[in-house]
Amino acid sequence: MKALLADMVVHGASGHAAWGENPAHGETVVLEAIASGQPLPDILALLLRTTEQQCAGMIGSILALEDGKLRARTPNRLPDFYNDAIDELEIGEGVGSCGTAAFRGELVIVENIPEHPFWRPFLPLITEAGLAACWSLPIKDATGQVLGTFALYYRDVRSPTDMELAVARRAAHLAAIAMVKHRTESALINSKEAAEAANHAKSVFLAQMSHELRTPLNAIIGFSDMMRQQVLGPLPDRYREYAGYVGDSGQHLLRIIDDVLDLAKVEAGEIRLHEAAVDLGKLISDTAALVRPPGQDAKVHLAVRVEPDLPPLMGDELRIKQILLNLLSNALKFTEDGLVIARADLVDGRICLSVEDSGKGMNEADIEVALLPFGQVESEMMTNPSQGTGLGLPLTRSLAELHQAVLVIDSNKGQGTRVIITFPQERTMALADQTSATA
């Protein structure tokens, strides 16, 4: 296809007379060039050549309409000085055949250029180019918007035949298909580039804001720790308690910053997993110890249940711990009293990580909101409404998807919630090893 197209563009109509005898074949070749993603100028040049083969003595020209001006960007057999002269010609009534056709949005036929008022301002140019007749059709998209013009020039004074007009209309239609496809693809590319630029700008902004926020927060947390430990001298218990509040609040803000940054990195595809064999049972126990309610008289009991002889999971331990922390924190937050269970099971060769609570539960609408970044479910469902940024579940799902895992939420109001993350079978280490050994 590329070789044929190049030959047609370079050598013009010569050597391809058979195309004139079979117009359908020429149109098929043009459509194949459009479908294969050839550059627009090459496609339109090919279209001109196939059309010229069907209309003896015709010289074709395709002009694109941009901001009210016609642009000569498609290679053709008209003299270079002529193409240069009409490039960026403003459309309007009586501005040659093409300018008028684009302005009116309809076919314009000029059988005798030297005698026609539309061409009077261009008479010296036309005389030098040796052109005597021209009819021009607007190239339109499906909505009727004019994209350009398709012109047929002749060196003799003449009127068009029905066959020539039919060929010209088919050619203008093919040109419209090519132009619309090019316009759509260009818009998609521009949108993609704009989205990538916006994501990059967001990442840079968040990184800068993270640095600007972390510096004072670390100082605040550090000084509050010094006050709690009475490094600079004894303090009343009341002030030590206040210092504890300050430090805890600072740590909470740092966690929010980390969640925002992680979510932005996931969306931008900037998080890379550092994979290794993960002992999920130990990881669940260690993580549960971090969030387990203090004291034996806590209203919420946190239990860990891991299937015996559970094989290791291939994954990023830090990110899986982050998943667990988010799920356990959510479960404890939404459970006033009762039970929270963190468990890991092997189901059909797939490791399933789940956190279940006996809290208030959610309906389907609540689940949809909870999975949106910054989404907040009804505050009366929370045991501590002041907590939560709406980032935990969206970030958890994103981190799970980085492991090719599927997150499912099973919940009903008044019946608690269960979040299940099912990892693909190839992440089950024992099974993966067996597959490798038998391969």
Helix content: 40-55%
Largest sheet: 6 strands, antiparallel
The CATH topology of the largest domain: Beta-Lactamase
Please tell me the total number of domains.
3
Q: What's the mean pLDDT score? A: 86
Distance between the termini: 42 Å
Structural class of the secondary structure composition?
A: alpha+beta
Written as H for each helix and E for each strand, in order along the chain, the element string is HHHHEEHEHEHEEHHEHEEHEEHHEEH
Number of strands: 13
Please report which band the strand proportion falls in: under 5%, 5-15%, 15-25%, 25-35%, 35-45% or over 45%: 15-25%
CATH architecture level-2 label of the largest domain? 2-Layer Sandwich
CATH superfamily of the largest domain: GAF domain
Catalogue the unreliable spans: 1-20, 379-386, 434-439
Q: How many helical elements?
A: 14
Strand order within the widest beta sheet? 3-2-1-6-5-4
CATH top level class name of the largest domain: Alpha Beta
Rg over C-alpha atoms, rounded to the nearest angstrom: 36 Å
Shape: elongated
